[in-house]
Amino acid sequence: MTEKVYTLEELRELGEYPGVAYEQKYHFSRFANKVIKHRDYHRSYSLLGYILLFFSFSIGGWIWEVGIHVIEDGVFINRGTMHGPWLPIYGFGGTLAILVFRKHVDNQVGVFVWSVLMCGTAEYITSILIEKIQHLKYWDYNGYFLNINGRICFEGVVVFGFACIFVIYILSPFLDNIYQKINKKLLTVAAIVLCVAFAADFIYSLNVPNKGKGITDYSVSVVQQDNTETIEINE
Predict the structure, then answer these.
(1) What is the mean pLDDT of residues 116-133?
(2) 3-state secondary structure of 84
């Protein structure tokens, strides 16, 4: 990352005043009739920023998973491994991607490849831990293309790879810009409340895990056409 001293006029055009700024790409938008600064993904995030990003990814992942079933099946199902509106695997995955690849963001292809490997490993290990600790199975990819023991599959890890690219280069800088415009004391209070609620939910879920219908029950009954025999199939 190179350092550049901008002229006063350049700083005014970029909305940066006063002083020294890092070299960033920007272009003139004829549609908006102004200079558009490209979002800076080289930034360093504060501890508070990481906490807020973790919960943003966790809650966003929960909304994504729940939304899919609302659209496809027309029913609301809490897809979380916990009882609250969050999926920590999304939070940990997104936050870890930012931390691990912070110094390699200019190598987008490398970041994507390693994101696929990292997310696949994390999902596989998480699946094992949940089954060992809680004796439950929250997902099963048996039947999917290139799956490994039903714990991960090619389609899933590739999607996670693209998700990491989106998180690192677009979503995180965008959210961080929003956080920086909000009162820091208010954000700190919100982060503390979220951490306490998450910790309480985590402890409770260790003893009373979420077992909602359609989450951990991977069996369906198929009735033959003559209605004379019911076959139980484990997916």
Answers:
(1) 91
(2) coil
